[in-house]
Amino acid sequence: MNRWLPEDFLVAGEPRDRLAAAAMLIGSTLLLGAFALARAGDLSAVLQWSAGRGSRPVAAVPVGDLQVSGAESLAEPAQASGAPQVADPQVTDPQGDALETEPLQGAPDVGSGSDHGARREVRLRPAAAAHRPSERSSNAELVAGFRDDDVRFNAERSAHHLRQRGAAAVPELAQALRSDDVQQRSYALGTLWVLDPAPFPELIDRSFAAVGRRPEGRYPFGVQPASMGVRYLARHAAEVAPWARRFVDDADPMRAFFAAYVLGRAGDLRTVARAAPRLIEHLADNHIQGDALMACHGLAGFGASALPFVEDALPGADAQARPLLEALRAEFSGGRAAAAGFGRGVTRVYRDPLREYDPGRSAIPRF
Predict the structure, then answer these.
(1) In terms of pTM, does the model score above 0.70?
(2) N or C, which terminus of the chain has less Cβ within 10 Å?
(3) pLDDT score of 163
(4) Is the domain of 248 the same as that of 294?
(5) What is the mean pLDDT of residues 98-102?
(6) Which of 223, 248, 269 is the C-terminal boundary of a domain?
(7) CB 365 within 8 A of CB 291
(8) What percent of the chain has pLDDT over 90?
(9) Does residue 183 sit in the same domain as residue 143?
């Protein structure tokens, strides 16, 4: 029994009621058939229907996962009537590939005068390498895929293939850092952080610019500019210290804090008077996750040169900053035994964060 119809409608005795019931059943059956045909995405049926409709431009028609766009004419030849030529329909998939329509073998030609036109076969035409990056694409083609365009996922595919190529991809990625396209620059920068090449000026400048509060552009999936950028700079602290000196007084407080940490990690004693106070202010309890341990480790890198700043901060220290400052004072004064093991009351990751702290194992603060 058709559950779409009321029960008393089917058992009515009047002929007109039976006729109406039959009409409704037939209509619902046709509706279900049309719905099933649309869901199946029968491209050949759609193209056959289009072939008999004449030369009439139509908008894009969805067929399953494809789209048919352009003119729907596949029937009467334009040459016979002197009308202008109408192009074959262009079929595209959502990935950006183009699909060609070609006559089926044995089917009548479009110009044969057939009332029903020619059936068409859809074949995939490979897109350009820049649009569909693959392992066969060159480094330059993959880097070109980083540009901001209307092709979906090409930047992520390019980043994946370039990461697999390792150091061989660094020259093209370095050149992309000077691109006029913001997305291309940021994707190249994020990929370089993963590959971890030796620092060079353009990479260092872009890295410090990216670790501020508002980094520009979009980065590859899984790449957080503050985290990845700081970890890269920390791994190469000695090489990037000359650049960090320029940013320790930056107007962006996050960039200035990371620059001070890099200088402490590098043991750059020339900047201790500028960097130590900025690190000490992050030892206190605040809403920022992970900044106290990072600051403590950065101060330890300055050694005894930071002791005067530590002692000045002790009188007004809060409950979080005091044990860290006392541990630093013991470290700088040679009382290592008093500082050993203090981390058990501060962190569950490190026993001695003064020496064991690793940005790769800890949350990078963002504020």
Answers:
(1) no
(2) N
(3) 95
(4) yes
(5) 42
(6) 223
(7) yes
(8) 51
(9) yes
Q: What does the block give as tokens for 76?
A: 């009467």
Residue 361 lies in a domain: yes
Residue 243, in any domain of the structure: yes
Mean pLDDT of the chain: 76
pLDDT of residue 32: 77
Based on the fold, state whether residues 259 and 304 are members of the same structural domain. yes
Which is nearest to 272 in space by CA: 281, 284, 263? 263
Residue with tokens 């957080």: 224
In a domain, 334, yes or no: yes
Q: Is residue 23 part of a domain?
A: yes
In percent, the amount of the chain with pLDDT more than 70 equals: 64
For residue 89, the Cα-to-chain-centroid distance in whole angstroms is 33
C-alpha angle 209/211/217, rounded to 5°? 65
* Residues in the chain, total: 367
Whether 24 has a pLDDT exceeding 80, the answer reads: no
Residue pair 203/196 in contact by the 8 Å Cβ criterion? no
Alpha helices in the chain (DSSP H): 7-10, 15-40, 43-51, 78-81, 139-144, 154-165, 170-176, 182-195, 201-210, 225-235, 237-247, 253-266, 272-280, 291-302, 307-313, 321-332, 336-339, 353-356
Position 47: which residue type?
L
Are 66 and 191 found together in one domain? no
**Please, is 60 exposed, middle or buried when counting C-beta atoms within 10 Å of its C-beta (0-12, 13-18, 19+)?**
middle
Cα atoms in the 13 Å half-sphere on the side-chain side of 88: 16
Work out the pLDDT band at 23, boundaries 50, 70, 90: confident
